[in-house]
Amino acid sequence: MTTDIDWPDRYLPGLTDLFVSNETIVANLTSADIWPLLVDITQWEFYYDNVCKITPPSSGPILEKGDRFSFSTFGFPPIQTEVAESVAPSSTTPGRLAWIAKLDGNEDEAIDVYHAWIVEDLSHGRVRIFTQESQIGRPAIQLAAKKPNPIWMGHQDWLDGLVKTAREARATKA
Questions:
Q1: Can you give the pTM of this predicted structure?
Q2: pLDDT tens, position by position, 115-127
C-alpha cells in the first residue's frame, strides 16, 4: 500500500478541469484520532462549515467501500456520491478514503469529482492528513479560475477542522 492517491484514469491530475491538493502534518495526534471523524459522515458538520444536507448511507454513518450518500458543499445541491475506497489505518499502513461524486444536469451544472484522503502516522508522534480532489465539468472550470481557489481553501478548512476537533476530543479524554 502506498501513500499516494490511486487515481482512476478519468480523474488523473493535470488532465481534468480542476485539481487541488491539501496536506497538514501535526504532532500529538494519531491516525486513530483523525480517522473516526473523517469516516463518520454525521461528524462532518461539527467541524467543517462548508457541508450540509448530508444523507448517510443506508448501512449507517461510517463510510465503507460501495456506500452511497449525498451531501451539499460549495453551494451545489446535494451531490450523489459513492465510496470508491475505505481502508482504516493500521500501525503499518495509512488510512485511505476516496469517493466519486457526481451532480447531473446540463453542461453548465454537471460536475464529476474524485476526492481522496490519506491519513497516516509518522515518526515522532505526528500524523499526516493528505487530501486531493480532481473535478471535471464547467463548474470546475469556473472554480479553477477563481483566485484564491475556493476548493483549495475549503479543503484547508476541512483539514484544520479535523485537527481542531481531534485535539479537543483528545483533551476531553485526558
A1: 0.94
A2: 999 999 999 999 9
Determine the Cα–Cα distance for residues 149 and 17; give it in Å rounded to an integer.
13
Domains of the chain (ranges; CATH) run 15-173 (3.30.530.20)
Grid coordinates representing 45 are 458538520
DSSP H/E element including 142: helix 138-145
Distance CA 20, CA 11 (A): 12
Q: How far apart are CA 103 and CA 146, in angstroms?
A: 20
What angle in degrees, to the nearest 10, is found between the helix axes of 31-39 and 150-173? 120
Q: How far is CA 160 from CA 31, 79, 87, 88, in A?
A: 15, 23, 22, 20
* Three-state DSSP state, 125: coil
Residue 129 C-alpha cell reads as 492528513
Q: Whose grid coordinates read 485526558?
A: 174
- Cα gap 69→97, rounded to integer Å: 14
